[in-house]
Design goal:
about 170 residues; single chain; mainly alpha; about 0% strand; about 75% helix; flat
Length: about 170
């Protein structure tokens, strides 16, 4: 019907607008506050303290996205949005289980390395927590690969599940 055709066109347009437009809009809005979020030539600790009392940043809800990150990572929420879109939406483009697994493993490893190397959060506990979440994604993929490989019996799968749960708790 005509209504179906219109909705199909709308859906196709939104498939481009949302994954590209949302991170781009967030970046543009944050870029307007870059000088306040990361002023050049100022020590990191001083900038963090100054941002807490900055009335302009307090009045701008969009700036709150950057307040949990160290000054030089003012854009990190844009990266985080793209990462989430890759793990939830972009993976739907893959054609089979092999491509899906490879894509998720690659994204998982890259994001783990980025998270470990950058430590972008002001709060060190939050950085450690995000690293643990990245490890959890990779451990879950490993768990599913072991289950799908038919190398394990049902009894072994229970042990693997228990070991991975212990590993998640330790992280």
């Amino acid at each position: 019907s005509d209504r179906y055709d219109i909705m199909l066109i709308f859906a196709l347009i939104m498939m481009l607008v949302y994954p590209v437009g949302a991170p781009l809009a967030l970046f543009v809005l944050l870029l307007q506050h870059k000088q306040r979020l990361d002023p050049p030539g100022t020590e990191e600790n001083e900038v963090i303290e100054r941002r807490k009392t900055d009335k302009v940043l307090a009045e701008e809800p969009i700036a709150q996205f950057s307040m949990v990150y160290r000054p030089k990572y003012w854009f990190y929420e844009v990266y985080n949005t793209v990462r989430r879109l890759l793990l939830t939406s972009a993976v739907l483009v893959t054609r089979d289980l092999g491509e899906t697994t490879l894509f998720i493993v690659c994204v998982g490893i890259v994001t783990l390395v980025i998270e470990q190397e950058s430590k972008p959060h002001v709060n060190p506990f939050l950085s450690a927590f995000c690293q643990a979440c990245c490890w959890q994604i990779l451990l879950f993929i490993l768990y599913l690969l072991l289950l799908d490989s038919d190398l394990t019996t049902e009894r072994q799968a229970v042990w693997i599940s228990a070991l991975l749960m212990i590993a998640n708790v330790c992280l």
